[in-house]
Amino acid sequence: MKLALIGVGQAGGKVVDKFIEYDKKHGAEIVRGAVAVNTAKADLRGLTHIPEDRRILVGQAEVKGHGVGADNELGAEVIERDLGEIQGALDMVPSHEVDAFLVVAGLGGGTGSGGAPVIAKYLKRIYTEPVYGLGILPGSDEGGIYTLNAARSLQTFVREVDNLLVFDNDAWRQTSESVTEGFDAINEQIVQQFGLLFSAGEIQAGNDVAESVVDSSEIINTLSGGGISTLGYAESAVDEPKRKGLFSRLSGGGNDADAFDSTDTTNRITSLVRKATLGRLTLPCEVEGTERALLVVAGAGPLLNRKGIERSRKWLEEQTGSMEVRGGDYPRNGSGVVATVVLLAGVTNVPRVKELQQVAIEAQQNRDEIEGESDDKRRNLLGEDNDLESLF
Ligand code: GDP
Questions:
Q1: Which residues cross the membrane (predicted)?
Q2: pTM for this model (two decimals)
């Protein structure tokens, strides 16, 4: 699936930069264009792979390249005002070659939190291709303002996109490190998982033709009902079959698949799909009640089989209670693993989102109270109600 990526804010820019790295490393060819948008000059300078003419500094009149702090209302405002400049960078992306747009942002801050929904809304007005969001939730130790920002942004972002894929930093934090220290490792995880999902449907030269290949339209159909989605991923190291030359095949060298026990191959796939679904999801949630799902199994051709995928698909139907579960393979030689990614689209039972909203509502009430109280206290301290006359 070919994507135009738009990274908004620091996290958004870094993750899009990493996507390009992933694309080059794996020859996945999913990134057709990439743009980074930010109010902070230093963040744009820190990027490596996004070309300089696609790094758009917005809000210069308002914040002079220093960022909006964690003020997402200001973030939304300045992005709205500078949409023309963002369109200028998007004009360089060949939209006729793009299957979808993906707007990436951390939802707890200012620029991405406020700006990503504004950009998504704009893209949907201008283009006919689907517009997806990849929203990153803050760690719970980041503080009330980040939670409040994330809850407000999530609510708005999900309304403006065709589907919002969510990654929760809190669920992926290593116990031994703060969220900040772990970002590099977390970003690797993000691009590995979402990269594999979006790679499906792009068959590379030199790889075998899949038995039941996943097409971009299946990803689009799975995401098409809207709402919030999450991913599960699992892989297992394998000894890949040696690719035989034409001669050995013509001389009766047999089929590679013959050398692999099909029961092992099937069992490997079914257990990987279980692990991916029941293990740590990008946004932890209850699997039951998922509206639609898609599973993709990637690996060298002889290590993929239809039986494994069919069984896994049925199992996933039982787990989700959904009648709309798609599945297929993505042949990929040379990775040394069989990997599976499970997309749960339109999830309905997500304790983390409920908790986020609850904490955000409390944070909003606290903020209003504190603001009210400090006005009173300041008036008390400075005695604004006394008879002393100010200078002017
Ligand atoms: P912005 O530049 O104002 O949009 O704000 P940031 O992107 O710096 O931060 C917003 C949120 O994104 C933070 O609350 C963090 O939870 C998260 N974040 C920041 N940097 C990264 C990163 O590199 N990776 C991930 N996964 N999350 C990040």
A1: none
A2: 0.92
